[in-house]
Structures are given as C-alpha cells and as structure tokens.
Design a protein that fits this description.
It is a single chain. This protein has 21 helices and 31 strands. The protein is of the alpha/beta class. It has 3 domains: about 300 residues, Alpha-Beta Barrel (TIM Barrel), CATH 3.20.20.300; about 260 residues, Glycoside hydrolase family 3 C-terminal domain (Rossmann fold, 3-Layer(aba) Sandwich), CATH 3.40.50; about 120 residues, Immunoglobulins (Immunoglobulin-like, Sandwich). Helix 5 packs parallel to helix 6. The longest helix has 18 residues. It is globular and about 85 Å long. Bound molecules: 1-deoxynojirimycin. The site of 1-deoxynojirimycin has 6 residues, from loops. InterPro entries: Cellulose_deg_GH3 (IPR050288), Fn3-like (IPR026891), GH (IPR017853), Glyco_hydro_3_AS (IPR019800), Glyco_hydro_3_C (IPR002772), Glyco_hydro_3_C_sf (IPR036881), Glyco_hydro_3_N (IPR001764), Glyco_hydro_3_N_sf (IPR036962).
C-alpha cells in the first residue's frame, strides 16, 4: 500500500509548484526499510557489545548532562550515539528551522498529500540537525474531551481520520530520515494529574492537590481497540519504529510498566517491531518497566527534571545490576538494545547521517557540552539552516486547512474592498516577538502554535495584519486596525467606516507544565479568550459585514454571535505556524478556495459533548472512567440526538458540489493479498519461543568487572551504565519468567494482516456545480450495527474539480473497516458475519449525506470473502502454524454480539 501512496505522492508533488530539487519533492521512498535486514544488522551490532555498552543504549545521559537528549555513545566500536528531540511542529529549541502548522491543521486539510509532505519536511529538518529520533507524531491524546490541552498536537477525535494522518506522518518523517516516535501510548487524554510532582506543586486558588499517583484512564477493551488503539494499528502498518509510553496509568497500571499494553498489545497483537521509550518521568520502576516491554528511558532520571535526584536513574547502573543479579534476563536487555538499533538500521541511519549540530534550548554558538557540570566549553551550535523550501508546504497546509463555516451573500472572497478594518489582538504581532514566552507559554499577539514540548521556535511569524496590508496594497484598499480588544470606542469608530471588518479571536492550550491565564494545560472552558465573544458582537454591532477569523486548538462555542446576521463569514484557521498570515490571505482573497473540513464537532454548549476533563481529582489516585465508551465527539452527538452547531466533517467552499452515482463493489476475494504480506513478525518469535537474541550471552563476571573504569573521568550527574566503584552484586528477585511473557504467545489477533485486505470499493461522482474550481473532501461513513456508532467515518477523498466538471472518487474499504473488536475472543470480527447489512453513506460531512447504499451481510458464506474472526494469515510467527486460516468460519451461525468486558490490566 505504501508504495502506491508514495507513487501517487510523487506524481502529485511533482505537479505542485515546488522548486525543482527541493528536499521534499519528491519523496523517493516511503522511508521504510526492511525489518528483517534491520534486525540482522542490529543483532550483529548488539551481540558484539558488552553488558554496559548495551545498557548505555537504553539509558539517556540525564537532565542537563548533555545539552540535547542523547544516549548510546560507544567509543570502542566507533558508535557516536543517538540524539533525540521534539517535536510535531519542528525541531524544538533551536534556530534556522521551520515552525510547521500544528498537526491539527494537517487533519483539517483532509489531504493525504499535504499531510505527508509536511511530515516529510519535518523529518528532513530533524535529520539535517542531526536528530536521530524525533518525538512526534501524537495520537494520544486522541481528543476525548475538547478541552484537552494537547489535542492540537494530534489530529482528530475520529480514529479513522487520526489513523490516516498519524500513519502518514510516521511514514513521512521516517522518509525524511528521522525515526518518528508515535506518542503517547496510550489513553493520555488530559493534562490535569498526569504527574504527581507537577500537579502537587500547583497552587490553585482554594485548591491544594495531593495526588499520590497519576490518573488512571479506565476503559473497556472494545473502546480501547476501536477508538484509542485504532490509529496505532495504522502507524505500525506504516512503519513506525518507535513509541513513547505515556504518563498516565491505564486501568490501574502505569502505562510504561504495563505488560498487557506493551508486550501484549503493542508488540504482540499489533506486531510492532521497534522500541518503546518512556516520557520524561513516566517510568515508575526499573525491573518492572523492562520486563513489561519498555526499551529506552528518556532523560534517564527517575523523575522529570531530576526533582528526585539528578543523575539517579531506574536504569543505567541499576539496569546493569538487575541483569547481573538476574532480576532482568540478559536476553531482555539484548532485545531492548536490538530493537533500538533495528530502528536505526531500518531508517538507514548507519549511512551518512549528519552529526548533531545544535544544543536544544541554547541558541548561543559557544557553550558547555556538559552544561550542568559546566564542562567542555566549545562550539555547541553550528546554526545549520535546515528550512529548505518548507515555507511553501507550511503555507499550503495552512491555506488548505482553513475551514469556512459561514459565508453569507459571498462575503468572501474579498473583492478589492475600498476599506478594511482589522480588529483584535490575534491579528497582529506580539509585543514580545513570536518566541517571547518559553515554549510558547503565553497568548500574546496572533496565535499560531500551542504551548509545551510540542512547540518550536519561529524563524519568523507572518501575522495576519501584515499579510493583509501587504495584499491590500495591490487593490489600493485602505486598511485601519485596532489590536486592543478592550478599546471599544476606537473599535466602534474604525469599523463603522469599513466595507468589511475582519475580527480575530483565539483560544489557547498546551502541556500541563505551563499555566497560561489560569489554564493548566487543558482549557478551562470552550469560549474565545480575551472577551472574544463580546469583541465579535461589538464589531458586528457597527459593521454589517463582519468576518470572524479564529485561531484555536480545537472547537470553540459560537452561540453568542454565530446567528448574528452581521456576522457574514467565519473562518477556523487552527494553529497555522510561521506562514499564518500568508495562508489566511490566500483564502480571504480567493487565491485558494477554502477546502478544510472540521476534524471535530462544534457543539452549541459544552455539556453537549458528554465528555470533559477532570479538574478536581476524585481522590489521591484519580480515576478517569471512560464510561462513554465509543461515543465521543460526533458519535456521541449522533447517538444522543443532539444538534451540533457545525457537525464533524463540515466545511464550505467558494463553489458548490453535487454527488451522484454511488457504486458499492466487492473486491474479488481471489485477488486479496493472501500470502503476500511482508513477513514482519518473525522477530517476535525470538522473544516468546526462544528468547535468545545473541548466540553467546555475556559471561557474567563479578561486580568489579562492571564498575566505573579507572580510564575515564566522570562528568557529574551524567548517567553512566557502570556500577559505583567498590560495589558488590545485590541479590534481586528472579524475574517472573513465563507469566510475564505469556501475553504474547497466543494472540488470536496477532499480526492480523488480513485486516488490511481490500474488500469493497465504494465510488461516486462529484460534480462542481459552481463557477470556480475547488476541492471537495468526499466522506464515506458506515453504519456497522452491533452497538457501533450511528455512523462512523471509514473513508475520505479530497479532489480538485474544475467549475462545471465531474470527478470520480473512490474509497477502498479494508477488512478492518468492517470489523469490530470482540473482547471475549480477543479478535477482530468482520460484521458481515454477524448479520444485518452495513449501511454505506457518502457525503460532504457527517450529517450532509448525499448518497447511500448497503454492503450485504454474508452469514455462513462458504466461498469467497466472508465474515468472521479476523486472525492472522501467512507468515506471522506468533503462532506455530503458518497455515492458520486468516478467516475462521463462524460455527453455530453467529457468535454473540461482542461483549464489552472490562479488563483489569
Ligand atoms: C514530555 C512530553 O509529554 C513529551 O511529549 C515530550 O516528547 C517530552 N516531554 C520531551 O520533551
């Protein structure tokens, strides 16, 4: 499938107006190597290492010990180690790199080509800065609650849209050359109470937190699979080589030491081949986390920012000790190191990879290589300009992500207005500059990025006012502006002169370690900030052509003004990155016809969503019970019969489209790719059946062989793998052998390659019935029955159509698109085997459904493609029998409708 996507992208990018030879045009390969070869090289490398060298690959050097996250320097074999950095919006904490749009905007485009192109550019920038491993992309949070602080780092609460975007971003970043780390695994859906120390240190008025554990996200197995794990399946399929486990607990167990999640589901059921890295401080144990499947610790220290001890690690010397005293089997350490090196070879980083050429968070040219110890003063930043022509892709993603929600009497596009009023702080530059607040932790001037570790430095920020003024010169338009949201009399007088009044509002959110205006990461409400609602009504009260532009990390409530007849147009612009103003001008003036669609619902009131952040803990060990199950966002609105203001998938254009000619065709089962899948699962058998990665294990010597060598001098608080001098071996509990790994040995859904077989093609004709060319995002929804949402997205296709012309669009349904998770049998079940037809809908949004048809049930089918349990097929070595049928025919008619069981992990 990837080769196909890559070829399509290659062709379509070639027609885009990118300068010849630019780095991201065209992506030559989808960035996937070959896992079998990668593992062969990794084994060869790892099996020649000493025990401490292997430990060195798993444990980062510590807070501030080195100036960018690093690990694994092994001078004896000439390995210079691996460098790691954030983020989804660009290379974090440096200069001469791009500030990309938020991933939210990538989802708002619904454009596979653009998602991939921006991901590729971001990956290339990380690589060119010498970053081997980039902490991006994000699909946890998925966006269960619209208030969730980090939702904008991800894509959409719809798992299908998120899955496509997440998979494409992984593939794009990998192709750009850096190892994309999918994060945060899993159910990390809010900032409040994600970490003990962080939240207990907050001093909210009248509230004192005293939590003893991070929150536990509690959910049933079916919801876990169909909603929150769904996009991870995409990413594994698309070549994800690293995963970051999250801060929270899941059903009571810390995510990073959750055997069922890491060994069982991620590495077993999904067949993930890469490594699992902790988040800063999400590792809560040494032995348990290694046995549960964590492979690398970031920061290295026991808690974020070394609060509980600089230089003190659960791993490092403690992992060495644990292997020596048999608490952790050495083959597990071999596996950890092998997985890390397999990712490195999978991406081809052994050839020509640039050296790390900057220091995260330090823009100076010279500084200390070991900043905490203040040692080795040298050049730490080479200021390498890695931006290439990426501004173009950022501008395109920005423009194509803008969602137009209202456009009365063709208020837009602007047609050479005589006078424009531009109102609102969000239209102009910040007094402090675009990087004035650390990690973008403030809301000043125009908002183009949220705050936290998902941020990056802006090389520049084109604010809307500058871009509008620049464009207005062409028409001789008079441009007046007021950037003070509170100067009502000045606003009144300026807007009453104008032909069109552009009013800018925003709302912000980010990561929980920063508080902005009383918002501790998660938003406190869903309204526009800085009296945004009043500002809009103020302007509309004096201007009959008021055009609202909103920069937000998610939905905002619009009821106070959306029906005001003087509010003639509304544009949702997300968080557009460095090219913000240019992207907006493209749409305002019609150079680009709006084509974005909402990746979430805009409700009429906050309560309508049915989900929210927990702001006050329900006890010292907070529990977030995901009792809504599968029903978040539009699935909830549909199920509860609540009328949204704007539904999921909605977005207008400057032209109009009609839909006709629905066809629903089964794919000839004999053409299904049975047996042709890549044999990616062979590695796992090494873990379960025969835990021997390296033929000859290190011969364990006595402790003195592993103590700090006299030949090197230590840097203070740097985490080394060595035991302290004069230490002796402790006795540890022997690892709980078989039971720990039992999760992985017999997984019905293991590998589940048959999920990816194409089973149906749905197609339709879209006609551009307007007078201008435009792009339409045609959407496919299915009604699967059996307790599933009323309708759920299972396909989308963005097509550019000239005025008066038609285009054929098609959607390929894979078996997984027709499958639901059956918890009792731990397998995906194709609903066609469960009775009842599947409803098929094609339309312009989740509620604007223009065409419908059905996919028939296929009960007890004897031949061809049929329903039933979707197990693995072909080459998976998770079972001993390679001829295991990929579809099990149902016995006794139909199995029960899958029971949602709560599984205590
Ligand atoms: C914590 C964040 O949760 C994670 O997303 C980020 O990658 C790390 N810090 C490193 O900055």
């Amino acid at each position: 499938m990837f080769l196909i996507i890559s070829t399509v992208l290659l062709a379509s990018l070639a027609t885009a107006q990118y300068p010849e030879g630019s780095r991201y045009t065209p992506p030559i390969s989808p960035g996937r190597g070959n896992w079998s070869q990668a593992y062969a090289s990794a084994r060869q490398f790892v099996c020649n290492l000493t025990l401490t060298e292997k430990v060195n690959l798993t444990t980062q050097t510590g807070t501030g010990a080195t100036n960018t996250y690093q690990l694994g320097i092994i001078p004896r074999v000439g390995f210079r180690g691996l460098a790691l950095d954030d983020s989804p919006t660009g290379v974090r904490g440096t200069d001469y790199s791009s500030a990309f749009t938020a991933p939210l905007n990538m989802a708002m485009t619904w454009d596979r080509e653009l998602i991939y192109a921006q991901a590729f550019a971001n990956g290339a920038e990380h690589r060119d800065k010498g970053v081997n491993i980039a902490y991006s992309p994000v699909v946890g949070p998925l966006g269960r609650a619209p208030e969730g602080g980090r939702n904008w780092e991800g894509y959409s609460p719809d798992p299908y849209l998120s899955g496509v975007s997440f998979g494409l971003t992984v593939a794009g970043m990998n192709a750009g050359g850096t190892i994309a780390v999918g994060k945060h695994f899993v159910l990390y859906e809010q900032e409040h109470f994600r970490q003990r120390i962080e939240w207990n240190s907050y001093d909210l008025p009248g509230v004192e937190f005293n939590i003893t554990e991070p929150y536990s996200a509690n959910t049933d197995d079916r919801t876990l699979h169909e909603l929150y794990l769904w996009p991870w399946y995409d990413a594994v399929h698309d070549g994800m080589a690293a995963v970051m486990c999250s801060y929270n607990r899941v059903n009571g167990t810390q995510a990073c030491q959750n055997n069922h999640l890491l060994n069982g589901i991620l590495k077993g059921e999904m067949g993930f081949q890469g490594f699992v890295v902790s988040d800063d401080g999400s590792q809560h144990s040494g032995v348990l986390s290694s046995l549960a499947g964590m492979d690398m610790t970031i920061l290295g220290e026991t808690s974020p920012n070394g609060v509980e001890g600089l230089g003190i690690s659960f791993w490092g010397p403690n992992l060495t000790q644990s292997v020596l005293n048999d608490s952790v089997p050495e083959w597990r350490l071999d596996d950890m190191a092998t997985r890390i090196m397999a990712a490195y070879y999978y991406l081809g980083q052994d050839e020509g990879f640039p050296e790390l050429n900057f220091a995260q968070g330090d823009l100076d040219t010279y500084g200390h290589l070991y900043p905490h110890a203040m040692e080795d003063f040298t050049q730490i930043n080479q200021h390498v300009d890695v931006r290439d022509h990426h501004a173009e892709v950022i501008r395109r993603v920005g423009a194509n992500s803008i969602v137009m929600l209202k456009n009365t009497d063709h208020a837009l596009p602007l047609m050479s207005p005589r006078q424009l009023a531009v109102i609102g702080e969000d239209a102009g530059p910040s007094l402090f500059g675009p990087n004035g607040c650390a990690d973008r932790g403030c809301d000043n001037g125009t908002l183009a990025m949220g705050w936290g570790s998902g941020s990056t430095n802006f090389p520049y920020l084109v604010d809307p006012l500058s871009a509008i003024q620049h464009r207005a010169l062409e028409d001789g338009t008079v441009v007046q502006y007021v950037l003070d949201n509170y100067d009502t009399s000045l606003i009144d007088s300026v807007v009453s002169q104008a032909e069109a009044c552009l009013v800018f509002v925003n709302a912000d959110s980010g990561e929980g370690y920063i508080e902005v205006d009383g918002n501790y990461g998660d938003r406190n409400n869903l309204t526009a900030w800085m009296r945004g609602d009043e500002l809009i009504n103020e302007v509309a009260g004096n201007c009959s052509n008021t055009i609202v532009v909103a920069h937000t990390p998610g939905p905002i409530l619009m009821e106070p003004w959306i029906q005001n007849p003087n509010v003639t147009a509304v544009l949702m612009a997300g968080l557009p990155g460095q090219e913000s103003g240019n992207s907006l001008v493209d749409v305002l003036y019609g150079t680009v016809t709006p084509s974005g669609k909402l990746p979430w619902t805009i409700g009429k009131k906050r309560e309508d969503y049915g989900t929210d952040v927990m702001y006050i803990p329900d006890g010292p060990e907070p529990n977030l019970n995901f009792t809504e199950g599968l029903f978040i966002d539009y699935r909830h609105f549909d199920q509860a019969g609540i009328e949204p203001r704007f539904e999921f998938g909605y977005g207008m254009s400057y032209t109009t489209f009609s839909y006709s000619n629905l066809r629903v065709d089964a794919v000839d089962a004999s053409n299904a790719s049975i047996g042709n899948d890549e044999p990616t699962h062979t590695v796992h058998s090494q873990m379960t059946a025969n835990p021997t990665i390296c033929p000859h294990h290190t011969t364990k010597l006595n402790a003195s062989a592993y103590t700090f060598p006299s030949t090197i001098s230590s840097v203070s608080d740097y985490i080394y793998p060595y035991l302290p001098r004069n230490s002796s071996l402790t006795t540890g509990p022997a690892y709980p052998s078989a039971s720990v790994y039992a999760e992985r040995s017999d997984i019905p859904a293991g590998g589940a390659s048959a999920l990816w077989d194409d089973v149906y093609i749905v197609s339709a004709t879209i006609s551009n019935t307007g007078e201008t060319a435009g792009q339409e995002v045609a959407q496919l929804y299915l009604s699967l029955g059996h307790g599933e949402p009323v309708r759920q997205l299972r396909g989308f296709n963005k097509t550019c159509i000239e005025a008066g012309k038609d285009a054929e669009v098609s959607f390929t349904l894979r078996r997984r698109d027709l499958s639901i998770w059956n918890s009792p049998s731990q397998a995906w079940v194709d609903v066609r085997g469960l009775g009842g037809d599947v409803g098929v809908f094609v339309g312009a949004s989740s509620r604007d459904l223009r065409l419908n048809g059905t996919i028939p049930a296929m009960i007890n089918a004897k031949n061809g493609d049929h329903g039933g349990t979707v197990g693995q097929k072909g080459h998976s070595s998770l079972t001993t029998n390679d001829s295991t049928p990929f579809v099990t025919e149902l016995s006794d008619g139909q199995p029960e409708v899958p029971v949602v069981t709560k599984r205590v992990l």
